[in-house]
Amino acid sequence: MTPTEQPDNHLPAPRSGDEAWLSVIQKMDEAYADLVDYQVQVEEQNAQLEEARTFFDSVLAAMSDVLIACDHEGRIQQVNRACEELIGRPASELLGLSLIQLCEQRSQQILRSCLSRVRHEPVRDQEITILGVSGPVPLALNCSPRFNQRGRLIGVVVAGRLLGELQTAFKELNAAHAELKLAQDRLVQSEKMASLGRLVAGVAHELNNPISFVYGNMHALQRYTTRLVEYFEAVQSGASREALQELRARLRLDKAIADLDSLVEGTLEGADRVREIVNDLRQFSSTQRSEKLPYDLVHVAQSALHWILKEHPRVQVVRELPVSLAGLGHAGQIHQVVVNLIQNAVDAIRQQSEPCLTLRAGIQGDHRNGVLWLEVEDNGPGISPQDLPHLFEPFFTTKPPGQGTGLGLSISYGIVGEHGGSLTITNSERGGALARLALPVHPPVAVASTGENDEQG
User: Fold this and answer.
1) Cα separation of 361 and 297, whole Å?
2) What is the residue range of the signal peptide feature (predicted)?
3) What is d(CA 345, CA 433) in angstroms, rounded to the nearest whole number?
4) What local confidence, expressed as pLDDT, does residue 10 receive?
5) b/e string for 11-29 if b means 16 or more Cβ within 10 A?
6) 191 touches 335 (CB < 8 A)
7) Does the CA dihedral 342-356-401-435 come out positive or negative?
8) The pTM is what?
9) Phi/psi class of residue 164: alpha, beta or left (left: φ > 0; alpha: ψ in -120 to 50)?
């Protein structure tokens, strides 16, 4: 070592032999401990994998639907027990076969199309036919793609449900729906006829008045006709002037002639009244849908009120109605709604010492874009809070058993909705129930003015 060279104090000092062996043994212990940890982790993961596999196999075995896993070319990789039982072959014989080979001839092209489409989108409820152990079996097929971690298509999962069971279920469901719809139509018509039946007595009395009037007038006209025939025969036979004057006075022809105009006018008025009643009744009882026509809401309300009150003379009525309110719709259907509202109000006040019914109507807004409204208010006990939200539900009624079907308000609510209106029932501030009907107004027809009128204006 030269005088200028200095020893390197940073180099590790050489270890003795014992220290080197201790370091090696320590490293080996650490590596062994790591190997033991890895072994434990591997065993735990193997147990989890085995548990997951057992769970997966139990799920596959429990499935009643056919489940087939294929590769991207359609070769079978795995099937469940339902598939084995349907086809009648064990899984070991099915693995590696093309799924298309299991289909009926007509379904093979459909399945090829499904396997091609599934690369881009899932296939849902495709009907195919599988060759089962007992013959062709229709299936509703669902296909979904399988991808690897890189997003590459590696296979297809095919699930099929026996279409025979679905078809049977759909047929039973359709049959039940048809029966339910038919029963609903019958109940609706039954409720309508029940409402009509409640009006029979009033209608009969209403028809009896004009018919009796016409009948009496026709008897009077018959008597006058007999007198006139007798007088004209005397004229034709050449009777003297004095004899004709005496005969005219005896037959009271002057009075008969004076009564002819009033008898004819009264008869025509009675016939017109009968026609109006029959027309209203026909519209009310008709089940056919016709085009919407103008109607008078006040006339409809007055007619319904008049018919119902024939059976309830004790009920006092307060009318707050205008002369007319023009609406557009089916007069017979609106008549049915008003009849139901008035009938419900009358039923609610039967036990009152002084039953009273108030009928109001008017228009909210102008006669072009306004709303017609009609209110029926009674002085009954009102409606309980728990019943108010259910009044328009089918078959709900607050009446005793046998006195109501629970369809009147439900049908009325539907009719008003079809007319673009609204129907509400609340408790009045005076204690009874208040039903409010709102309907679109019938706008007046615009009349084009002439040039002459424009100049004058």
Assistant:
1) 9
2) none
3) 8
4) 53
5) eeeeeeeeeeeeeeeeeee
6) no
7) positive
8) 0.45
9) alpha
Q: Which residues pair with 299 in a beta bridge?
A: none
Burial of 220 (0-12, 13-18, 19+ CB in 10 A): middle
- As a whole-number percent, the residues of the chain with pLDDT over 90 amount to 10
CB neighbours of residue 111 within 10 Å = 24
The H or E element that residue 374 is part of is strand 371-378
195, 408 in Cβ contact below 8 A? yes
d(CA 137, CA 162): 7
List, in sequence order, every residue forming a beta bridge with 162; answer none if it has no partner. Answer: 139
Element (H or E) spanning 141, and its range? Answer: strand 135-147
Type of residue at 448: A
Q: In what order do the strands lie in the sheet with 371-378?
A: 316-320, 356-364, 371-378, 433-440, 422-427
> How do strand 316-320 and strand 356-364 relate by DSSP bridges?
parallel
What stretches of 299-348 adopt beta strand conformation (E)?
316-320, 326-329
Q: Are 413 and 392 in contact (CB under 8 A)?
A: yes
Rounded Cα–Cα distance for residues 354 and 226 (Å): 53
- pLDDT digit string (tens) for 4-34? 445 555 555 555 667 777 777 888 878 888 7
Quick check: helix, strand or coil at residue 382?
Answer: coil
The model's pLDDT over 318-375, given as tens digits with 9 standing for 90+, comes to 999 999 999 988 887 888 889 889 988 988 888 888 999 999 999 988 777 789 999 9
Backbone angles phi, psi at 292, to 5 degrees: -75, 135
What is the spatial distance between Cα 457 and Cα 438, in angstroms, rounded to a whole number? 37
Q: Which two tokens stand for residue 66?
A: 């056919």
